[in-house]
Amino acid sequence: MKVSKYLFIKNLVDALIxxxxxxxxxxxxxxxxxxxxxxxxxxxxxxxxxGKPAKLLLEVVWKAMPGVIDAIDDAFLDGRVTxxxxxxxxxxxxxxxxxxxxxxxxxxxxxxLSSIAEYYGFGLSDWLSSVRNEIAExxxxxxxxxxxxxxxxxxxxxxVSDSSNLxxxxxxxxxxxxxxxxxxxWGLKILKLSPGVLSKDNFMPALTITGIGLCPQTSAFNSPIxxxxxxxxxxxxKVEEVIIRNRGSLDNSYTPNAACNExxxxxxxxxxxxxxxxxxxxxxxxxxxxxxxxxxxxSSPKYLTFADGLKIDKINPDPAFTEQLVTITGVGFDTxxxxxxxxxxxxxNGELLKSDVLSGDNxxxxxxxxxxxxxxxxxxxxxxxxxxxxxxxxxxxxxFTFGDNGNVIDDSFQVSIDGEIIDETTPxxxxxTNTLTTEQGEHDIIITGITVPxxxxxxxxxxxxNVDVISGQTNGKVDFAVGTQFSKNLKIKVNNTxxxxxxxxxxxxxxxxxNSTLTID
Length: 521
What we know:
Strand content: 25-35%
Number of domains: 4
Low-confidence stretches: 130-134, 142-167, 176-186, 510-521
Number of strands: 33
Shape: globular
Largest sheet: 5 strands, antiparallel
Strand order of the largest sheet: 25-24-27-31-29
């Protein structure tokens, strides 16, 4: 098991961390006219004259990733890596990369880049502070090419550089099925088909294929080489081959987006005409010997299917929060009058909550998740037709209070949650309360000093009783050096329990007495 664990760690560094940080350092080295601290073998080479030996990147950066180390140790402890342990590893790596990205966007190197630069003697901080903002933005985006949805990530990559393999590596990592050897497979992939449900009444409907490697290839004469698209009806046995020429006719057009991770094609009428309501159609993209098949690659959905009348295909986003706009796609919606499409969510006691349709056409309608909706069925009614799907409603409301708890009324603070500024106080403001809706689970809180004129920050923050403070001090008096900025990090966990007013708040109150605090419960 030790061999498997260290093989996993080595592949994590070699396949993901090394090329990602290498790409950033290459940019920095080019701008500074210096060499990249990381050599092709994965060693950090010190600056000449420092008298240090070359050191494996793994050894240099591992100390900056304690959460990742703990998650991997826990996962491999009993010889069986569970789904939850797999998710923990991914979550810890995501935190590391998120912190590095946030630091770069603020023109600062994060912990890992700092450890590399420190070992090498590389003036990364000076360089970051001198580059133009748009260059720093590109570096931050290049640094974490897949973060969240692959579509947004590959859009970023198309602007920054041709780094598709790097993006694929990150995509495979964030969606991995754990294998001890952690093999990463690159190549042509179909990830999603939209729409997934079709009507027999559609004439050559547009189909959006989302995936990897969908760019037209380039011939020796610098002209585009388009793929062949195959539509295979597994029920009737019909196969329709479309040779893409892209010369102005819809039936053989091929329209990729700028990032080439999404392409629009048109389903041939021949495959629509012969299909039955039981048909399941595989979609295949073929570049020579490189084949992507929707069924074999478990795209979402794996097959195109057909419906007669009203049928919900999907609801997006899912999960969703109350008051969030969601799109319901499918077939059979009424286009003559939006009010003829009735949408109902489910309340906690099982009652139907109606939500008005805000916009739509024959393939999609948009509604807001009503207050009081819970996880459960979403029902659409059009005349006598009715169909249901399900949605997960994520609603966790927390309340927090913060402010200056010193005996001198002079400090003001800003509170950020997961990198987003939520609220701030005015100088000397004792008590400010905010309520917001957020996801259950762990979140990072940063309290930052806006004005602290005497270099002594006196602060407090307290939360509703559905919040556990995992780490960090919720109140204190902190002296800091001139020229630096006060900040305090906390980690909280939001639980699936009813909210309350903030509890355990400790702040200075003259009514209690000089230099005294009042605890609010």
